[in-house]
Write a structure and sequence with these properties.
Layout lengths: L4 E3 L2 E3 L22 H10 L2 H5 L18 H19 L3 H10 L8 H14 L7 H16 L6 H8 L9 E2 L6 H13 L12 H24 L10 H7 L3 H16 L5 E2 L2 H17 L7 H23 L6 H6 L5 H5 L3 H10 L3 H24 L1
Antiparallel strand pairs: 1-2, 3-4
Length: about 375
């Protein structure tokens, strides 16, 4: 039986992931920081982390500065997860690193952009594209000029398994080796169903997964209220009875329910009433918010935009167009290892997936303008 271990003046529970249990996929130099604390530093200094600030959470094309961006969402997830982790006696550094890194792989224009890149990726035989898997890829293979960051296995695993779209009443960690983690990671590119079977290897990872859900359920309603799409008055009473009538109450009630049902246990659990209410609220959000976040016209525009940019960049690489940003701003700085061990199609997917909303839109408009100008010149001739 494990005994309590004091780390950074905090008593951890028997089921916490200890700093001494940290696993690396590559050799790691000595550092005075503890492993998961160092993960936090390595994640927040990535270029992908900086780009959070201009990536869609739910709504794009909306002129409202108070709508949640991806940067704010990951901060909410981190705070909620650390609140739960602190009370349960878990490793807060592992929780914070995982929470802050969990959405690094999100595409421009949120889940709509992700779905479009998935279609493109399948078409060019690069496998399924999922933002949580791409978050891991960013840390292992893209950041640090294509050499990757040396992040612990436990943090990478929590990021890979974070998907809050798959809701469970009970979250039980699944111990795994480095080889098993890498096998799961690779399978997600090949098997459409592999994503649904992912389970975090630590209790901290389980906390981050449920916290992702807690962070967006009520907050997305608040954002929708600012756009006059829906209000808390529209939420059915059977949901509000257990979760509350505001985002504040929803967050507070779910956190307290988790702590009450999970304290001293080797799993994370929700009460039956709270679990059922979460499922109902998630369904309500899909029907009244997510399905209405983009018009069909906007979706078609995004599909045209991303497909056009993919074809353009692929051609730019093949023809070595030195004026294209994929060559002069991206590949120019990447390691030979990255350039030699990835297909042109994968490189283009990496580049587009890393774009902010504004950069993607500007690149597309710049390209369309150049085509228009070229046609005018040809007509004059």
């Amino acid at each position: 039986m494990m005994t309590n271990v004091k780390i950074n003046n905090k008593i951890l529970c028997d089921y916490a992931c200890l700093d001494e249990d940290a696993i690396y996929l590559k050799d790691n130099d000595f550092d005075f920081r503890t492993p998961f604390f160092r993960d936090i530093d390595r994640i927040i200094y990535t270029l992908a982390f900086i780009r959070y600030s201009d990536k869609t959470q739910v709504f794009s094309y909306k002129n409202n500065d108070h709508l949640t961006k991806r940067m704010i969402h990951v901060q909410y997830v981190s705070k909620i997860a650390r609140t739960i982790g602190r009370e349960l006696g878990l490793n807060e550094d592992l929780i914070e690193a995982s929470a802050l890194g969990h959405d690094l792989g999100h595409t421009p224009f949120g889940h709509v952009g992700e779905a479009i890149l998935n279609e493109i990726s399948l078409r060019v035989n690069e496998g399924y594209f999922n933002h949580n898997i791409h978050s891991v890829r960013i840390l292992m293979n893209i950041e640090n000029y294509g050499n990757g960051k040396n992040i612990t296995l436990q943090t990478l695993d929590a990021i890979m398994c974070h998907n809050g779209e798959f809701v469970n009443r009970k979250y039980v960690p699944l111990n795994k080796t480095s080889e098993q983690f890498l096998e799961e990671y690779e399978n997600c590119y090949k098997d459409k169903t592999a994503l649904k079977s992912l389970r975090p290897m630590t209790l901290e990872g389980c906390v981050v997964r449920i916290s992702d859900l807690i962070a967006y359920l009520g907050r997305d309603i608040e954002d929708a209220m600012r756009l006059n799409l829906v209000s808390f008055d529209d939420v059915p009473e059977n949901i509000k009875k257990y979760l509350g009538r505001s985002n504040k109450e929803i967050v507070n009630n779910i956190i307290n329910d988790i702590i009450k049902n999970s304290l001293g246990k080797n799993y994370i659990e929700l009460s039956e009433n709270i679990f059922k209410a979460i499922l109902d609220l998630k369904k309500f959000n899909y029907e009244n918010i997510y399905y209405k976040a983009y018009t069909n016209e906007e979706k078609e525009k995004l599909k045209l935009m991303l497909n056009t940019l993919f074809k353009k960049y692929l051609k730019d690489i093949e023809e070595n167009n030195v004026d294209s940003n994929i060559n002069k701003s991206y590949l120019k700085n990447m390691s030979d290892n990255y350039k030699n061990n990835n297909t042109k199609e994968r490189i283009v997917l990496d580049y587009i997936a890393g774009m902010t909303d504004d950069y993607c839109l500007n690149e597309y408009n710049k390209y369309e303008k150049s085509i228009h100008t070229k046609k005018e010149v040809e007509n004059d001739i």
